[in-house]
Every structure is written in structure tokens, then in C-alpha cells.
Amino acid sequence: MTAFGVGSPVRRIEDDRFVRGRGHYTDDLRFAGECFMAVVRSPHASAAIGRIDAAEALAAPGVVAVLTGRDAEADGIGGLVTAVRRRRRDGSPMAEPPYRALAVDRARFVGDAVAIVLAETAEAARDAAERVAVEYEELPAVTDAAEALAPGAPAVWPDLVPDNEAFVFEQGDRGAVDRALAAAAHVARLDFRISRVSANTLEPRNAIGLFDPGTGRYTLHSGTQSPHRLRLELAEHALFVPQSRIRVVAPDIGGAFGMKGSIYPEQILVLWAARRVGRPVRWQADRSESFLSDHHARDNLTSVELGLDGDGRFLALRVRTIANLGAYLAMNTPHSPTNNLGGLAGTYRTPAIHAEVIGVHTNTQPTAPYRGAGRPEATYAIERIIDVAAAEFGFDRIELRRRNMIRPSEMPYRTGLVFTYDCGDFPANMERALALADFDGFAERRRAAAERGRLLGLGIANPIEIAGGPEQNPGEEACEIRFDPSGGATILLGTHNHGQGHETAFRQVAHELLGLAPDRVEILYGDTDAVPHGKGTFGSRSIAAGGTALARAAGKIVARGREIAARLLEADPGDIEFAEGRFRIAGTDRSLALEEVARASFEPGRLPPSSELGLIEKAIVSARGATFPNGCHVCEAEVDPESGEWLLTRYTVVEDVGRVVNPLLVKGQVHGGVAQGFGQVAGEAIRYDAETGQLVTASFQDYRMPRAIDFPDFALESNEVPTAQNALGVKGAGEAGAVGALSAVTNAVLDALAPLGIRHLDMPLTPEQVWRAIRAAEEAGSAPQPEAVPARP
Asked: Which residues are paired to 393 by β-bridges?
């Protein structure tokens, strides 16, 4: 390992421009003659759309045009489609309701786009949007998934899905689980809700559309995690043109977290509008509009049952989930509740597992992946039910986990549900995390907290997730390495950097593979004209998938460079070795640096016969399979029983993300993921008025985001168990923190409250909810005084 190689804690190179305000974001771009778009959104959760009168808006100063869904239909503009298809209960394909860029006959959630206004300034567009008169006939609405399944509930799509049940998806062996649970000595049961959340990226969504009538070509500048996939969706489902007629450019992005991984109506609208008016069209959401129009996430109701024998060994797990899909099926809406169910197995030996997911339409925004995309929910189910089983049946919760944990000697291990883990040392993760967290000193800390009138709890979770895509189809990625005549290199990647540190990490990989100095390498991504193919950044896949492509392209560079070096050194290519950036004749001190060879590659007289000029190689490859990052989270939470307020006092993580490219980047990713998981437990929740369907948490005054003061110092260590599934041995780190935090933090708070007889509380665990639970326990006569709370081992 060199000072910049793989494994080095290199500070992020890209941060220099960010902290100096030199980032290059979509809203920084300016184009001659541009106009601004404002969206007219439905104020009703469910309403028939009648006449749209734009006369007053068109007469307002600076207004260029007002366009409606009927205009889009007349121009042959399509909409959004889902990429994940499931089946209904009877086995027939699920219905795919139309998701238009602008609603036509009916609005189906508060914020549904109904019309757009184009004007000379953003202020003029917004003012005119308020003057568009839309005749609405308000209709009954339903926003809760369970209520949407009740007989007589308002139907979101009366003609397509009259019962609101979009699909029923099953995995696992139902019969084996039924039999095992029936024979089990103990069966623990828990019903819980995973709250609906909003990603709330630092940079809200945006889009700038341009159209060249001379070439018939569109250009979209927009913050997106997957520029190439967005281009495909625009071409095939919205604009109906060849992909070559569309360029998508995604510059710096201020956060994405999965929410910016799907196509959105506004990205279609700015391109269509640019074609209509012959001018560039710009749209930038503010925070209020983001709450109303971003795809939300999570929002599940789950019942889980865990069967154990008399010694506490897991026999079977049954999980049933009702997933709120929202009104429409966005590109990845069915993905989160169904594609990562394998995580329910956790790090444990559970022979029989069965999962059933019912997807339900409601009058709410569509749901989409958000950091973890089903993985945190799966981990929450298994880690919460283990704590419940331990408490109900008298097992020590740590020992119960030890007893059922998969051992390294059992790898590869086929779980009871979908996944086959290729490698990992789960027991080592837990033992090291407990030691790092000073688990042995917890009892004393708990006694000390009781003396101060506080309740202290400890939570533990052993998360595991799939990274890199579905197990049998991890997905390809592209990389091209281009040397210029000066010997510098540009690496073009199909992944996208929106906070992960790719510009640093991929330079480190290039340094490791090719010996290139970081200041001699440029990283290019996010432009479909410059990078001809790519999949994007999501699912903790970038270093595994992109690194595999980079390794393959680097191998081609070395192979071609060896031929050129042999010519220059007057040696046989078979005698040329390559290491640390130099080609050397074996057994001698005669050598050339890769940069020297690259410069020579542009001089015809110095090349082998028939050799092409330049040193440029590319690769589009797939890793051998998905990987399974795993770890252990241990945290402590202190509760004030008088106010219900609680705070984290300790947080410890031991993560196995395979080979670590950059320890600082891994720590940053884990810290961020933990913060987002904590935020959902502590206060984040999208809520709707049950009667009207109005969004009542549409600002940060109502939607509580976590703050820096909410967190203690994090203790983080890596337990590197490299995988053989890709060339670098990496497993992915982007979602690891969030996958474990949801359950670890909840377990800690509920462990603090357990002596009061409080078994479970649904997130968010706000001070008010905790206070009410404590008061209810006191009224029930089950609550001892804080100073009498016994210490637990």
C-alpha cells in the first residue's frame, strides 16, 4: 500500500472545490434566452379535473405559455413506467396505471402536476401559476395502506385496481414455515410500522431542458443518479425518439440517496416545453415543492413471527407486509418492498423463511428507493423480533444471537430465503463491536444513569445487505481510460459521484492498478455524450461494479503498453514486467514509466507495426455476483422519564465492507447512514390528514430532521473479509449505516423502557410518544421508579 493506494485514508480530493463554493450544480448553469417553469399542483388528494382556465395567467406579465395534460397528449408525450413488475393475487399481471407527466382527468395526490406555466422569471412563473383556474370535483381519498384495503375504501384507480391491491408478492417456503411454527416451542410475534419518510436532499430536484430544432436533439441537465437510465426512459416512454437524440448531463449533485434514481415528470416537462416554445426551460424546486413532489420512501405495515425450539434455536420466520406504493408506480416503486427481502434472514441460521408483500395504492406520492431500499426494513424485522423473543422467553439477547449466527466455516451459506452469502465473519463483527462498545461496563453505566433519574438502554443489530444488484444479475458497468499526448489520463465512468467520494476512490484504484499520480488523472462521469454506456450509482454498487470495469480496462492498458514498451526497449514483450507504474525488462534496471509509454503511443514511428495511435482502452463488464456487506451496530440511548426526551450516548459500528479502498470514505458513509437511520427513528415522518389527504408535514417546522447535536462520537472499525465476487474484493459501503441504525437505535430506546413494561413503540419515537407510553405504564401500575431499575447483563 502506497500513500495514495488502496487502503490509504486519503482526504477527498473533490472537497476542495466544494468547500470553496466551486461546485458545479444544475442551478449554476445559464443558457441564453431561457425561461422558467412553474408547476400547477393539485391541492386535493383525489379530485376530478374539469376545465382549466389559463386566461388570467396568460395575461400576467412575463408569461410565455401555459400548458396542460391535454396539450401533452396532443403532442404525443408519454409518461413514466415501472421497471419492476409483480402479479396480482390471482396470478395475473399487476395493472400499470398511467403515470403521465401532467394529470389529465383526475388528480390522485396533493401535489399531482396538473399544468405548467412558462415565464421570463421564476417569480413571474410562480405568480402566474397561482392564477391558473382549475375546476376540481373533490373525491374521497385514502392515504393509509391498511385502510385502503378495507371494504368500501375509496379506490385510487376504480377501473384498474378497484380494491387498491396492486400486487401480492411471495418468497420462501410457506408450507415449511407453517409446519415449523406449529411445532415450535416458542413463537414470538410483533406488529410494527415503518414510517414514511422524505429524502430531503440538500439540493432539491431540478431540470433544464434544451431542444435543437436543427438536429431534433434534446439536452437535459438534471441531478440524477443514473444518467443513462434516464436517457433510456425519456427516449422509450416519454419522447419516443432514439436514445442518440437525447443527451443527459448530471453535474455535481447535492445528495440523492435513491430519491434521484428515478425519472420524474418535471424532467419530461422541461424538454417538451423547450420544444414547444423554442427556448431553454429551467425548473428548480424549493423545499415546499419538494415535500409535495419528491418520491417518498418506506411506509410499511409488517407482522413478523419467529419460531424457536426450547434451546432458542431459530426454526422459522414468517413476515407479512402491507406496502404503501402511493398513487402511481414510479420506475422503482415496487422495488424496495420486494427486491431485498433476502435480508430478512439476517446473519442467522433460520431454515425456513416465508415473506409476503401486498402492494397497495393510496392517494399519496409514489414511493421509491431511499438509502437501503428495503434492507433497513428487513434488518429491522429480524433484529426487533430477536429482542422480543429474548424478553418473552427468558433468553439473553446477545447469547440468542450468538447461538444462531452463521459461522465463517459454513461459507458459502445458502440462507432460508433467496440469498447465498459468499463470505463473512459475523461472530467476529459482534464480538469486536461489543468489546469496542465496552459492553462489560454497561451495567455500571446503567446504574449511574438510574442515580441521575434516567433510563439507559443498549441496542444491538447485526445487519447484512445485498450490494451490487440482484444476486444472479449484479449489472454491468462501463469504464474507459484515455491517455492524452502529455501522458495524463482521463477515466470515464458510468457511475456517478454525488457525495460518495468517487473522484478520490477511483483515483486510488487507478494508482493501485497503474501507478498513476492523482494529479495526472481526471475523472469524468455524468454525461451520456462523453460516457457512451453506464448504469449509475445506487445500491452500494459503484466501487464493486465500476471498480471491476476499471480493473479490466487497466489490464488492457497494461497489455497494450507492454507491446509498446517492448518496442521502445528493444525487448521481447514476454520479457516485459509491469509494476508500480513502470514497464521493466525482467532482471534488468531498464524501464519506462507508463506515462512515457503513453506519450510514445501518439508517435507513429515509435509504435509496433500496424499499431493504432494512442493509448485508449475501455471495458463494459459485470462482477461475478452480488456482495453482502455486513456488520454489527451497538448503541446506547438515555431516556428522561419525566419528559420522554432521549439521546444517543454511544454508537459503535464494526463493518465488513470487504477490502477497504479508503477508510475515511467508509467512515463518512457509515456516519451518514447512521444519521439517516437515527433520523427516521427519532422524528422523521411524512403524515397526511386522514380526512382530506392533505400533507401536514410539508416543511421542516413539522418534519423533524436530525441535527449534529443529536449524535455522540462514533466508534467505527472495519473487519475486512474480501470477497471473490469482483476484482477488488470490495463489498460496498454506501447503505451500511442506514441498514443497521434503524433497528439498533430502536432496540436501544426500547431496552431503556423495557423495565417499565413497554414492549414496543412504532417510529418515530418522539418525546411525546415516549412520554405517553411511560405515563400509560405508570397508570397500569407496572412502572418502577428510575432509581429502582435493575441493571441488565
From this structure: none
How much is the pLDDT for 472? 46
Distance, C-alpha 281 to centroid of its chain: 29
Reduced to 3 states, what is the DSSP secondary structure of residue 323? Answer: strand
For residue 786, the model assigns a pLDDT of 42
ω into 518 cis (within 30 of 0): no
C-alpha closest to that of 506 among 730, 724, 227:
730
With a CB cutoff of 8 Å and minimum separation 6, the contacts of 635 are 437, 458, 459, 648, 650, 651, 652, 744, 745, 748
Q: Please, is 403 exposed, middle or buried when counting C-beta atoms within 10 Å of its C-beta (0-12, 13-18, 19+)?
A: middle
pLDDT of residue 790: 33
CA 78 from centroid of its chain's CA atoms: 27
- Return the amino acid letter for 299: D
Residue 581 burial by CB count (10 A; 0-12/13-18/19+): exposed, middle or buried? middle
Are 405 and 426 in contact, with CB atoms under 8 Å apart? yes
C-alpha cell at 228: 443513462
Tell me the C-alpha distance between 270 and 294, whole Å.
16
Taking the CB of residue 681, how many other CB atoms lie within 10 A of it?
26
Q: Which residue has the cell 457509515?
A: 670
DSSP 457: E
Look at residue 474 in the predicted model and tell me its pLDDT. 58
CA angle 99, 101, 104 (to 5 degrees): 75
Helix, strand, or coil (residue 113): strand
Q: Kindly give the residue spans of alpha helices, DSSP state H, lying in 515-570.
A: 547-569
Ramachandran region of residue 288, left (φ > 0), alpha (ψ -120 to 50) or beta?
Answer: alpha
Q: Are the C-beta atoms of residues 326 and 362 closer than 8 Å to each other? A: yes
Could you tell me how far CA 585 lies from the centroid of its own chain?
A: 48
The pLDDT assigned to 611 comes to 87
Task: Say which residues have a Cβ less than 8 Å from residue 587's Cβ, sequence separation at least 6.
Answer: none
Looking at residue 470, its pLDDT comes to 58
State the burial class of residue 359 (Cβ atoms within 10 Å of its Cβ: 0-12, 13-18, 19+).
buried
Please provide residue 142's backbone torsions phi and psi, each rounded to the nearest 5 degrees.
-140, 135
Q: How far apart are CA 156 and CA 137, in angstroms?
A: 15
Angstrom distance (rounded) from CA 154 to CA 147: 9
Strand 521-524 versus strand 489-493 pairing type: parallel
Going from the first residue of the chain to its last (793 residues), give the mean pLDDT of each consecutive group of 10, the final group possibly shorter. Answer: 86 92 95 98 98 98 98 98 96 97 98 98 98 98 98 97 98 98 98 98 97 98 97 98 98 95 97 98 97 98 98 98 98 94 97 98 97 96 98 98 98 96 98 98 98 98 87 76 96 93 95 95 96 90 92 97 95 95 95 96 91 94 91 98 98 97 96 97 97 96 95 97 94 93 98 97 97 95 46 31
- Say which DSSP state 709 is in: G
Element (H, E) at 461: strand 455-461
CA distance 520 to 516: 7
H-assigned helices in 265-416: 265-277, 287-293, 335-338, 375-393, 397-404
Cβ atoms of residues 556 and 621 within 8 Å: no
Helix (H) or strand (E) holding 490: strand 489-493
d(CA 63, CA 121): 9
- C-alpha cell of 758? 413497554
